[in-house]
Amino acid sequence: MTTATMTEKPPVMPRNGVDTPTLFATLDAVKGQPEIAKFQFRASNRWVAGTHSRSTLHGFFGAGQEMEHKQAHSYDADHPQVLVGADNAPTPVEFLLHALASCLTAGMINIAAARGVDLTSVESTVEGDIDLLGILGLSDEVRNGYQGIRVTFRVDGDAPAETLRDLVERSRQRSAVYDVITNGVPVDIRVEAA
Amino acid sequence: MTTATMTEKPPVMPRNGVDTPTLFATLDAVKGQPEIAKFQFRASNRWVAGTHSRSTLHGFFGAGQEMEHKQAHSYDADHPQVLVGADNAPTPVEFLLHALASCLTAGMINIAAARGVDLTSVESTVEGDIDLLGILGLSDEVRNGYQGIRVTFRVDGDAPAETLRDLVERSRQRSAVYDVITNGVPVDIRVEAA
Predict the structure, then answer these.
(1) Were both Cys, which of A98, A108, B40, B43 would link to A167 (CB 3.0–4.6 Å)?
(2) pTM of the full structure
């Protein structure tokens, strides 16, 4: 044994693939300098043809500086043929469901890691009901968006069922996407027309 | 000239890549049978490791029957390294921005086609401001989700600027994603814990 290892604390091992020591260090850093928690995320979208468009997600602002993902990612969206699209990609509203499931999942994994819970499997399904009389302009009484969304999680891990259920509940309480989708957020739209 | 072409009406040409005749026929079909407008969209998500998960979008219900996209599409989401993720993919909240841009764009293309406006270019950028003190659990006064979202469209086409701006406004009024993101929707979460 070297002096170095003797004076070090036992290492806090990453859990669930989460680098828990860095997670705690990050929390401490933000506590000491709360302004670094202000982030801005961005998408740029370009129309392709018909109802088909493509968004690119790459740069964002965070921790006081301009940042980029390791690589740019592009995602298409389209309408299905039954809605007179070419079905080149899922619909915009389906991406809301992906956002919701992935946000709740990432949150519960972090919370589990912080609490020392080892998870073996997390799966979820999300269903959103929508009556297209709204977006088709055929009814002013039917809303345009989903009328309700249901998420079902199946969670397996080294903890009692009650603890596993609580992880999902804690994640819900701190989920950015859940907050936006349930509470709404102001959206400002500007148009530069040539 | 054959008799067939002489007796046919002049064809209504697709515009902006939108099959306008089928779009109008679809609207007529829904007017006559409004229950076919009830749709359900779905996502299934599976945790990969850390904050990395993957959603699959394939089947949906619509027009009175189970349907599928031409192919299944899978999308990853992750947290960036500055947020202690592995940055395998964009964050869940960035997919909200893709959903919003693509929904507003698809809507305005359809509306333009229905009104006989030829568009040459539609681009948009979306920015969402978020203060992570909320999701990090470091403040109960800061919301978890975006505090505000700004969309900027650049539209070019064969119509006056005022008409082009009005296309975006009409799309906003009938956008499913804009409705969800600005007004919120109830989300029910259930957990099956092993």
Answers:
(1) A108
(2) 0.94
Exposed, middle or buried by CB within 10 Å (0-12, 13-18, 19+), for A81?
middle
Q: Per the CB < 8 Å rule, is B130 touching A39?
A: yes
CB proximity list for A1: less than 8 A, separation 6 or greater: none
Residue B141: exposure state from Cβ atoms within 10 A (0-12, 13-18, ≥19): exposed
CA Rg value for chain B: 21
Two tokens, residue B33: 């049978």
Question: Which residue reads 């029957």 in tokens?
Answer: B65
A18, A39, A161: residue with CB nearest B50: A18
* Bridge partner list, B129: A40, B148
pLDDT tens for chain A, 194 residues long, are 333 334 444 455 678 999 999 999 999 999 999 999 999 999 999 999 999 999 999 999 999 999 999 999 999 999 999 999 999 999 999 999 999 999 999 999 999 999 999 999 999 999 999 999 999 999 999 999 999 999 999 999 999 999 999 999 999 999 999 999 999 999 999 999 97
The residues facing A129 across adjacent strands are A148, B40
Decide if B178 and A38 are in contact by the 8 Å CB cutoff. Answer: no
Instruction: Select the residue from A58, A68, A102, A181 to test the B interface by mutation, using most B Cβ atoms within 10 A.
Output: A102
CB contact under 8 A, B155 and A192: yes
How near does any CA of chain B get to the CA of A7, in Å?
Answer: 26
Interacting residues of A94 by C-beta distance below 8 A, sequence separation 6+: B41, B42, B43, B57, B60
- Report CB contact under 8 Å: A47, B123: yes
What are φ and ψ of residue B123, in 5° steps? -130, 150
* φ, ψ (nearest 5 deg) of residue A60: -155, 165
